[in-house]
Amino acid sequence: MPLYLNDEQAMLRDTARDFVGTEAPVGHLRALRDAKDPTGFSRDLWRQFAEMGFTGIVVPEDQGGLGLGHVEAGVVMEEIGRNLSPSPFLTTAVAAVAGLKSTAHADTWFPRIVAGDAVIALAIDESAKHTGRVEMTAERSGNGFRLTGTKRFVHHAHVADLILVAARTENGETVFAVDPKAAGLAADPRRLADASLASEVRFDGVAVDADAVVGEVDGGRAVLNRILGAARTAAAAELVGVGAGAMDMTTAYLKERKQFGQVIGSFQALQHRAAHLYSEMEVARAAVLKAQQLLDAGDPRAAEATMVAKAMTGLATTLSVQEGIQMHGGIGMTDDYDIGFYMKRARVLAEMFGDAGHHADALARANGY
Amino acid sequence: MTDLDQFRADTRQWLEGNCPPEMRQPVRSEKDVCWGGRRAVYQPGQKEWMDAMASRGWTVPDWPTQYGGGGLSPAEAKVLKEEMAAIGARNPLSSFGISMLGPALLKYGTEEQKLDHLPKIARGEIRWCQGYSEPNAGSDLAGLATSAEDAGDHYIVNGQKVWTSYADKADWIFCLVRTSKQSKQGGISFVLFDMESEGVSTRPILLISGYSPFCETFFDNVKVPKANRVHDENKGWDVAKYLLGHEREMISGMGLGQGTGGNPLIEGAIATIGLDESGRLADPMLRAAIAEFDVRARAFSAMSERFIDELKAGRAHPAQPSMMKYVGTELNKQRHELVMAAGGSDALEWESEGSNGGAKARAWLRTKANSIEGGTSEIQLGIIAKRILELPGA
To answer: Which Pfam families is this protein grouped with (chain A) (predicted)?
Structure first.
């Protein structure tokens, strides 16, 4: 399979670019932020995502979805990134679907996800830095379990219809699908730098039935790996979109802004920096597509390719937004101008599901050093 | 089973039966690379492997069969590459004929030139060198002065080239000469001639690595038949640029590291420094640097795959080789800096047997030319800025 988008995927990209660029450009995020919107995204927009079929992009066809893969989900993610559009697409339509696929929960939740009626949150992190380790406990209690512990950095938890949460059970880890309205569960949403809302979610002996288990008891690591594999690749694709969007803005500005009687893009010092940035973004984009293709093929090399994709996009997009502000000069520091929004979103995404350092470390461990 | 699956199965079987065991060892130094040519000195297995692959046209899998190629489709060529990688098979033949002149001849050569030169390149019979840079024409390549005077059915070539890689080992040269002073780029022609021609001499240049891979090459009234000119007179710059694109692709491949067996950087670091009780390299700062490098190298490897796929499908931006060359060479320099850091004082030895004659130190120094040869990193960045990002000229 060649490592570029095929004709159908390119067509999907054009559709997604057109749709997201029209319905949810950066101004959409700005308006939500200025209104101190308590949801964190527009439910109207989410329903439009459903009308476009995007919410069911990786849901199997026989369950009402489009039956496509990580490559196609990534195509949509990249456009979301390019426009900084707030939506629960990553957690709900990509990561949660990957986690619930082929489990008893799919029949209940896939129709609602496809219809744009459900928002699903991922409760994974327990400290300010992502570690991938699970300390939260789920103790056997009657026919079910009691969950105790605190999860952090959980986007959409305060408005979610379902929270997927990982906890330690007797002989391993288990993933549970929990109703956010359950007694003892409290989501405390905090506004982040990029205007998104992420909660600290406290589980104070939350009682769940045995049928809340996703997959097998003590078999949660496999489910968690599916969720994280999908989430990291999707976040990497979104980062490519953020980095590309910032780079395009910056390149356009270099062609328009004049100083010393000429456009600043004619100065070699800036040309070389812009060209270096372009190179980094190209490399990052290739790394993401490679990871997506391997995931779709069920290839065991997908695990390392995902680490590379998340780390490389973190590095490249961080460069893109920094160069973006620097090359814009003073105007780049103003809230009126959009480039700062890109920097804030990039920082949140770089941290999400493990930063570049986390994944470089994981890659080193996977390779025996 | 699809045709491609069948091709994969057949290829796997053929490689298994024909690739000598010595040719499945990782490439550890320049000597392990097979260049071919009239004066080639082969290591055990090298010639058999080259000949076996050449018999199927697989030294140049995607060239047409009538020119000694394999006539493979892009998908088949990719399968061959994957199957070779799977058994750690070395590249049977690396040469400037394959990576640079061949593609230019396929595009610009006459039928006679193609039939004359391409099969000999494919079989490794003739080793080529590149006469581009001159003492006063480096980054400003089109400023070259080597003259080719019209003498009826031939030219008389006079002048000097520099940084001619392996000129002292090459059989033929492809060379840029000035056929007109009316125009800078529009006065250049592209000619081919035998290095044994009367009036050609070479002098190796001793480099900081202690090796002499480059030469000064002198032309003193060298007679070159006009039939050896590729493309029209004064149109050589088109050929030169096209060929440079391929040269940049080749050099960018260095960013992928040598060979396919294991990772010498990481193995070397573990051997010298060791692992701590948690299984991590015992030097945490170096470990972090290597790990980030590994992320970048693997991402570049994906980029390289994507670039080749796009190129074969005619989808790559024409200036994309500049990006590949820039990133690949900067990565290769970084790789060798890390190899040196991982080796500590062992890697500094210059002559000892244990250090394989200072292989690490010399290879490290050699890589410093990567971001200079074939157009400096700064030249590549300028090309990316102007041709891809469409930023205005100064």
So the answer is: Acyl-CoA_dh_1, Acyl-CoA_dh_M, Acyl-CoA_dh_N
Q: Which residues of B touch A2 (CB under 8 A)?
A: 74, 309-310, 312-313
Domains of chain A as residue ranges with CATH: 7-117 (1.10.540.10), 123-218 (2.40.110.10), 221-366 (1.20.140.10)
Tokens 């999860």 sit on residue? A151
Return the number of CB contacts < 8 Å for A and B: 144
Domains contained in chain B, number: 3
Q: Which chain A residues touch B382 with a CB distance below 8 Å?
A: 268, 271-272, 275
Q: Please check whether residue B326 touches A, CB under 8 A.
A: yes
Q: Which CATH number fits the domain that encloses residue B358?
A: 1.20.140.10
Residues of A with CB below 8 A from B281's CB? Answer: 364, 369
B105: CB partners within 8 A, 6+ apart: B113, B114, B117, B118, B230
Taking a contact as any Cβ pair under 8 Å apart, which residues of chain B between 302 and 321 contact chain A?
A: 302-303, 305-307, 309-310, 312-313, 315
Same domain, B86 and B23: yes
Residues in chain A: 369
pLDDT digits (tens, 9 = 90+) for A112-124: 999 999 999 999 9
What's the mean pLDDT when you consider all of chain B? Answer: 93
pLDDT band at B141 (very low <50, low <70, confident <90, very high): very high
Residues B38 and B70 grouped into a single domain: yes
Q: Which candidate, A319, A318, A327, A324, places its Cα nearest to that of A340?
A: A324
CATH number at residue B22: 1.10.540
The closest CB to that of A283, out of B270, B300, B310, belongs to B300
Range of the domain at B68: 3-94
Q: What's the residue count for chain B?
A: 394
Q: Tell me, what's the ipTM?
A: 0.96
- Residue B155 pLDDT exceeds 80: yes
Residue B300 falls within a domain, yes or no? yes
What gap in Å lies between CA A155 and CA B279, rounded to an integer?
Answer: 34
Contact call for A3 and B270, based on CB within 8 A:
no
Task: Say if B119 falls within a structural domain.
Answer: no
Asked if residue B123 is part of any domain, the answer here is: no
Q: Among candidates A333, A324, A342, which has minimal Cα distance to A274?
A: A324
- The contact set of A with B (CB < 8 A) is 2-4, 251, 254-255, 263, 265-268, 270-272, 274-276, 278-279, 282-284, 286-287, 289-290, 304-305, 307-309, 311-312, 315, 356-357, 359-361, 363-365, 367-369
The H or E element spanning position A282 is helix A268-296
